[in-house]
Automatic annotation (TrEMBL):
GO terms for molecular function: N4-(beta-N-acetylglucosaminyl)-L-asparaginase activity; peptidase activity. Cleaves the GlcNAc-Asn bond which joins oligosaccharides to the peptide of asparagine-linked glycoproteins. The keyword Signal applies. It comes from Xiphophorus maculatus. One of its GO terms (cellular component) is lysosome. It catalyses: N(4)-(beta-N-acetyl-D-glucosaminyl)-L-asparagine + H2O = N-acetyl-beta-D-glucosaminylamine + L-aspartate + H(+). It is an enzyme of class 3 (hydrolase). This is N(4)-(Beta-N-acetylglucosaminyl)-L-asparaginase.
Amino acid sequence: MLLSLHLFFLMLYLRLGHTSLPLVINTWPFKSATAAAWHALQSGGSVLDAVEKGCARCEMDQCDGTVGFGGSPDETGETTLDAMIMNGNSMEVGAVADLRRIKNAIGVARAVMERTEHTMLVGESASVFAENMGFAAEDLTTNESLNVFSQWLKGNCQPNYRKNVSPDPSTSCGPYGPKAAQTQCNGERQVNIHSHDTIGMIAMDTDGHMAAGTSTNGLSHKVPGRVGDSPIIGAGAYADSSAGAAAATGDGDIMMRFLPSYLAVELMRNGADPSAACKSAISRIKRHYSDFFGAIICANTTGHYGAACNKVPSLTEFHYMVADSESDTAVLKSVPCF
Ligand code: ASP
């Protein structure tokens, strides 16, 4: 009797847990991306379609200037893109990093997953692959990114991401060599709310199939060739339909050292609720880098979700978007950072 009562409540819990599926959740208030992903699901698309369409919308809208073309010029003024997409049922992944000339990075990531046996392609070769697959080659530079770049040049190439080096004595814009006695780049990390962002997205359907993905143009003034956390599996995002999914945003150079998305999913596998899993993943990084800039979103196998962020002066509250069958539209959510 007691056992059947237990079973009844367990089934009720599982059923209730599923009532708000399908689900789309993404980092930052990138509402048009959530709406595009939601629309994809509502029109019969798969969770992979939702993640691809949602992130692609951000790439075209240049969400915040931090996703897609025309943002975050590197030290040479070029915009390069990182993206990944993961199928939580099959555990297949496609990723591209340091992608040049192609606007639709998440589309190329999906092509890597579905048109090759590989998992990640990088740099010029990734761009050539994309061109061969029919993606249009375009200039990713805009007046805006040119302006950011020329302001940076005028400011003697400060801030930058180099450390323990000295620039040519006649300029502070390089070329750089190992640190000499006097002038040196201070190596102060300039990652703040203005120099970056990323769309990280999770989608889940009524059958519990999960997918996750990311797309970003990385950090302004990065050293050419720099790849952040966003296209790194388990760092930028991770999805396993039997455990949960997560996606991260923030200072990728720090965050990728801790695979926060993988960690959060494993914690959910072991029973942590999404908010607790997100918090633990942030805490793990905090232990070593107390003032890092970053946040993470998490969803478990019943479609419950949560988020967490590290509290720094430029981030005291983290905003993210959710659409589910209850809201039937993109709704802004926020979580206080800790
Ligand atoms: N994680 C991204 C990167 O480091 C940037 C961001 O999400 O803010 O490339």
